[in-house]
Amino acid sequence: MRRVLAVLAVVLALALAQRAEVSAGSPFGVQGGLRFPLVPLLLDGRVYGGAGLEALGGGADLLLKVPLTDLYLGLGAFYGTGPALTLPQEARGQGGVRAVLGTWLNLPLPLVGVYAELHPVYYLRPAPGFGLGVAVGLSVGL
């Protein structure tokens, strides 16, 4: 039954997703995910999974679009099997919450977007701590 529910969740996610994304950087190295419109032109949801040299993991973000700009702000949570990619190295952890400060880069490519993000992170596991990560990504879709 679990496998059936997992397959159903993946199929529904692909059907409802607005964009497919691939990024490099925080929190796990290379991530792949889907972005969903929750409130048109205002709020998006994003789910992702990633793999890196030290960790496998995934997470979810809520992203608020700043009107009349290419900026967006968000909050999210993540969890992985090893330490996430952020600085300082001694503050890294497996799971936590993060803020997302991002912008779309204006490139003349149809249906393709490039974005850059800054991630202030508060780690909850294995020990509380603060970190700062960055990511650059490619997004395909409407």
Could you explain how this protein is built, in words?
It is a single chain. The protein is mainly β and 142 residues long. Helices cover 11% and strands 60% of the residues. The protein has 1 helix and 8 strands. Strand 2 and strand 3 form a beta hairpin. The longest helix has 15 residues, at 2-16. It is globular, with a radius of gyration of 15 Å. It starts with a helix and ends with a strand.
Rg from C-alpha positions? Answer: 15 Å
Question: Tell me about the biggest sheet?
Answer: 8 strands, antiparallel, barrel
- The number of helices is 1
Strand content: over 45%
Strand order of the largest sheet: 1-2-3-4-5-6-7-8
As a percent range, the share of helical residues equals 10-25%
Q: What structural class is derived from the secondary structure elements?
A: mainly beta
Low-confidence stretches: none
| Overall average pLDDT | 89
Number of strands: 8
Order of helices and strands: HEEEEEEEE
What shape does the CA trace take? globular
Distance between the termini: 33 Å
Task: Describe what is shown at a glance.
Helices cover 11% and strands 60% of the residues.
Question: What's the arrangement of secondary structure elements?
Answer:
Blueprint (H helix, E strand, L loop, with lengths): L1 H15 L2 E7 L3 E11 L3 E9 L4 E10 L5 E10 L14 E11 L6 E14 L3 E13 L1
Antiparallel strand pairs: 1-2, 1-8, 2-3, 3-4, 4-5, 5-6, 6-7, 7-8
